[in-house]
Structure formats: structure tokens, C-alpha cells
Design goal:
10 helices; 12 strands; 39% helix; alpha/beta; globular
Length: 306
């Protein structure tokens, strides 16, 4: 097993295609395939399931890639500190639930660096993938939220993946909708008043669960619910269908525009006195990079917390 083979396997897992990986790695596709067959034979597992549609990780492969990323990232860190010659971009990645403040903070961070020297990545993605990205070191930092309902399940998942949650801010629950919505003029909204409008929720994929929902009150009975994959689609559905979503009330007009409002959700018999605790996750005992530290500082600055 060589570092080169680990690198090959990681790139294949990220592209889902031997042809695309071969292009990125500047190697012929037959040579890449042969290298992977030799690796699989040596370690006696099947890393990739191959089909006409591309390649995907097997269960053994998922575990293997997680370790491979850790080893290869440490190798890259050694090159950064002690390597000679050549110019290699330093990498920094963030995986996050769909929070505009996380993107805005990322924008402000990147402004301070020469992007010709760094490879930056921000991934707005599903809750489980945020956790997997940080666990596998694909991203250095992840952004998620906890509340009374999901805390037990997600905290156990974080522990099992040797991840630590650090609180950024605790928020009340708001209704997020566009300014032309029939309820937009209200100072606060009762849950019962939302029954006539579709609830919008970020899709969590095949392994979806109430516990992985990005929105608070995921167990409530919604007469109409529509799933979306990205914030742009969510905003379009708010305008086109008078949809709404449940959120933290932290919105960024610079990124989302000024056509949307966050209105407090009233506490009543149907709504428990719950809050959203938003924070970042990192690997246990990990020493943050200087860029990671600056990113957290940017988030705290935006949120107005120490």
C-alpha cells in the first residue's frame, strides 16, 4: 500500500468515476484501475463497487477511505511544514447545514487569502454528510444545530465518530418567509396559522430521519410539506408557493436578498419552549489550522458572540 494509491482511492471516491479521476490525476484509466485492483488484493477488501454508471464505495470502502483521508491529510501537513520544492495549494474545507451566516463568514475569510495559493471548499449538505465529512477529514469544520429533540441521537453519533460540538449561539425559533406572504405583516406567528401554507424542508436523503432534519419542530404534523436540496430553490418556493420554513432567525440579506423575513414563532400549547443551539464540530483532540481558527472568528464576529 502506497501513499499514491491512497491518493488515487480518495480522488476516485470524490469523483465517483474512474475516467474523471484519471483526468484529474494525469494517469491513464487502465493504469488507475490496475492500481486499485492491486490495492484491493493487498488489503483483501473491495473498496469500490463498479457499474456502468460509475463507481461507488462499498461498506468496507467507506471505512477504508475514512482512514485513508486521515493518513493522506497528515502526509500533506508534513509536506506543508517540511517539504521542499514544488508549489502545492493548502486546503481548507467546511461542511455545513444550510446557514447563510456560515457562507457569509466563509466569504469574509477567503477575502483575506490569495486563492491561487489555497484550495477552499464549502459544502452545504445533509446533516449526516456534515458529520461524515468532518469525521473523514474531508472538511476541517462542520456546522450543525442541536435541540432538545435531536441532542441525544446526534451527540451519540458525534461521540462515535470522535467529534466534539462547540456552541456558537442559542436561538429562538422563527418562521422564515417572503415579504409578500399573507402572514408577513404579523409581529409573531402561531403554529396553527401556518396550516394553510406548505412547509419547506431540506431533504436529508435515503437515510433521512427526524433527528437529522435541519429545521426545528421536525416531528410536528404538517398538512403539506415540500423537500428541497438547496437554499436557492427554497427561496424560490417561498415566493412561488407562499411556502415557509422554520429557522433560527439568523438571515443574511447580502446573500439572500432583502425580500425575506424571519418572524418569531409564538410559544403556545402546541410549541414547547425549545431553542436551536448552533455550533461547529471538529475532530476530537484536533489542533485547528490557522485558517480554521480565523473562520471560527469570522462566524463569531458575524453572530456577535465571544
Amino acid at each position: 500500500m502506497t501513499l499514491q494509491q491512497l491518493h488515487y482511492a480518495i480522488v476516485i471516491s470524490e469523483t465517483g468515476s474512474l475516467n474523471k479521476a484519471a483526468e484529474i490525476l494525469y494517469i491513464s484509466q487502465p493504469s488507475l484501475s490496475e492500481s486499485m485492483r492491486e490495492l484491493e488484493k493487498e488489503i483483501n477488501i473491495t473498496i469500490f463497487h463498479r457499474s456502468k454508471r460509475g463507481v461507488s464505495l462499498t461498506n468496507d470502502g467507506i471505512e477504508f477511505i475514512s482512514y485513508a483521508r486521515q493518513v493522506y491529510n497528515q502526509y500533506e501537513n508534513l509536506l506543508d511544514k517540511y517539504g521542499e520544492g514544488g508549489i502545492r495549494k493548502k486546503k481548507f474545507g467546511v461542511s455545513t447545514q444550510h446557514y447563510s451566516f456560515a457562507v457569509k463568514s466563509f466569504v469574509e475569510l477567503v477575502k483575506n487569502f490569495n486563492v491561487a495559493e489555497y484550495e477552499f471548499a464549502i459544502r452545504e449538505t445533509k446533516t449526516r454528510e456534515v458529520i461524515e465529512d468532518v469525521s473523514s477529514m474531508r472538511s476541517e469544520i462542520g456546522i450543525i444545530y442541536l435541540n432538545n429533540f435531536n441532542r441525544g441521537v446526534l451527540s451519540k453519533l458525534l461521540r462515535n465518530n470522535e467529534l466534539i460540538f462547540h456552541r456558537l449561539i442559542i436561538c429562538d425559533i422563527y418562521v422564515y418567509l417572503w415579504k409578500g406572504h399573507p402572514l408577513a405583516e404579523k409581529k409573531s406567528i402561531k403554529f396553527s396559522e401556518l396550516a394553510d401554507y406548505p412547509c419547506l424542508s431540506f431533504e436529508q436523503g435515503g437515510n433521512s430521519s427526524f433527528y437529522f432534519a435541519e429545521e426545528a419542530l421536525s416531528t410536528k404534523d404538517y398538512p403539506r410539506i415540500i423537500k428541497a436540496n438547496d437554499r436557492a430553490t427554497m427561496l424560490n418556493l417561498m415566493v412561488g408557493l407562499n411556502g415557509y420554513t422554520i429557522c433560527s432567525g439568523i438571515i443574511c440579506e447580502e446573500l439572500n436578498g432583502g425580500d425575506y423575513l424571519a418572524i418569531p414563532l409564538e410559544k403556545d400549547d402546541d410549541i414547547a419552549d425549545d431553542k436551536m443551539e448552533i455550533g461547529y464540530i471538529v475532530r476530537k483532540n484536533q489542533i485547528l489550522s490557522s485558517i480554521g481558527t480565523l473562520y471560527i472568528e469570522e462566524m463569531k464576529k458575524y453572530l456577535g458572540v465571544e
